Amino acid sequence: MKYVLDRFADEIRSAINTTGRVPPDLIELAEPKANVPADLAFPCFRAAKASNMAPAQLAQQLASAIKISRDSLIGGVEAAGPFLNFTVNRRQLAQNVLAEVGQQGQHFGGDDLGQGQKVVVEYSSPNIARRMHVGHIRSTIIGQSLNNILSFLGYETISDNHLGDYGKQFGTLLAAIEKFGRPEGEGESILAKLEEIYSRYNRLLGSINADDFDADAAGADDTARAWSLKLEQNDPTARELWQWMVQATLQANQRNYDRLAVRFDTQHGESFYADMLPSVLGQVEEAGLAEREAGGALVVKGLPDRNGKELPTFLVQRSDGATLYLTRDIATIIYREQTYHPAKIVYAVDQRQELHFRQVFALTKALGYARDIELVHVPFGTIFGPNGEALSTRKGNMVYLEALLDDAVARAKSIIEQKLSEGKTDLTPEQVAEIAEQVGVGAVIYNDLYQDPKRNITLDWERMLSFEGNSAPYLQYTHARCRSILREAGTLPATCDAQLLEAEQELAVLKQLARFPEAVRRAGGNYAPYVIADWLYTTAREFARFYRDLSVLKAATPELRAARLQLVAATAQALANGLALLGIGAPERM
Ligand code: ARG
């Protein structure tokens, strides 16, 4: 898809090409430095070298050789030392941007660059019979945003929730249910009870890590082992109890997913791949990639990762015959390759699993699978508490998703009610509830997405819920403000003369709007939703400056008023599109 700044760049390339002084493959454009008054630059170094010239001399020659027509998107060209600097034609830019946003509406910023390609995006992936904690919260939010961005770029995405529903711990859980009874309740509370009876049962057995759920080889007793076996052999009672646990977990999770606008195409748990495991193990052994140890374990030694670095030794089968989390991940890739033939598989998973994915990817490729699939692990850091304290189950201060969202919404509600009592806004009680939900949930999402996912985040409520800083409420507020200006204006004039938008503040907003499509591409290319967050924040700030300095409803002429209103409408639309890619709602009023 070509947006106005893409056509601007194309025109520059063709103008340089027409001079005949630069070989086409050396025409590479660059963003000028922040303090340079230009919109795009051609650094002349390489081209000058090719024709034995000083870069500044070539820049001079090109500047005088390039002719610009009146209706070009190029406004001006100038040599500045070794650079050839281009500015955009303000009038053309204004007209084109407003037309693009107006015509494309909620599709503005989208692209077709991914067309014809599938991407599997895997995220959330919590464990059955457990509440979603901080690791899954980040995965859920980052993964959904990546899914939104990639599908906006034209990829056909398949979102999958790789539920942790396999392993010996389910034998223990069934034994615990048998002993203490099936817990009742709904939502996260039922999962909390399951966690509780699980640790109670383990404590009874004197297991050291009573809470340790993720271990494939939970230190179970005979009863638990018997349940585990029954489950494997499809015993009806065991299956029924297991199904019940899966359903209870899915139901609890779904409530959170709905609030977060999270959607999955499939929720295949690890157990979905159980039938494939013997074949995977057979292939690993046959390919000579693993050694059978004396005790019976199947071990992979000395396998290089994709950079040729030797990976630490790892297991694909235990001595008791059990498979591992890693083995199931390999089967999962094979299944996805055969089912979807995707171009990429993207995993939003905690950075502590970095080594795990290097091992999975290396072994899968060594087996000859996923040759044409780009396997991408998008790692993320930890969530810390409000005072920067570490969160853990053992310390008893773990943060769970439902409780986190409830907390955020309650806080948002009291801030909005405060504004209401100060007369700063007039909303009905239903509106307050609805907006508090969007603001609270939005604040949690944005806190996760506004910076590089590798960085840790803190639950600093004041910052997250501030209406002024780099926060969701500030962005939502800017959008709502645009909408309120438009409501006050009444009907929008159908057409306007965009060329009247000549003030520097107006131009700054217009340029920001024009940059949105590129921000979306970069966010998708780098698996980096924060690029969109950055774009949103800059846009909101530029809009604030425009609105502070220039009047919209009381503009000097009706024509100027109409043009500014169109700028406000386009800003509202683009902000809403950006927020939607992050999974954040854009209320009409706040
Ligand atoms: N269920 C796992 C956990 O809670 C996360 C799964 C991540 N995805 C994967 N394909 N390994 O740690």
Share in helix: 40-55%
Judging from the principal axes of the Cα atoms, what is the shape? globular
Ligand inventory reads:
arginine
Number of helices: 19
- Please give the order of strands in the largest beta sheet: 5-4-9-10
Structural class, by secondary structure, is alpha/beta
Distance between the termini: 35 Å
> Could you list the spans in which at least 5 consecutive residues all have pLDDT below 50?
none
The fraction of residues in strands falls at 5-15%
Number of E-type strands: 12
| Rg (CA only) | 28 Å
Mean pLDDT: 94
Main sheet properties: 4 strands, parallel
Describe the protein.
This protein is of the alpha/beta class and 590 residues long. Among the domains are: 4-88, 2-Layer Sandwich (Gyrase A, domain 2), CATH 3.30.1360.70; 167-261, no CATH class. The protein is built from 19 helices and 12 strands. The protein has helices at 4-18, 45-50, 55-65, 90-104, 134-152, 169-180, 188-205, 222-232, 236-259, 277-286, 325-340, 354-366, 401-421, 429-449, 461-464, 472-489, 504-525, 530-549, 558-582; strands at residues 40-43, 74-80, 83-88, 118-122, 156-160, 291-292, 298-300, 314-317, 344-350, 374-380, 383-384, 457-458. The strands form 4 sheets. The protein has a 4-stranded parallel β-sheet with strand order 5-4-9-10. Strands 1-3-2 form a 3-stranded antiparallel β-sheet. Helix 5 (134-152) links the parallel strand 4 and strand 5. The longest helix has 25 residues, at 558-582. The structure holds arginine (ARG). The site of arginine (ARG) has 10 residues, from strand 9.
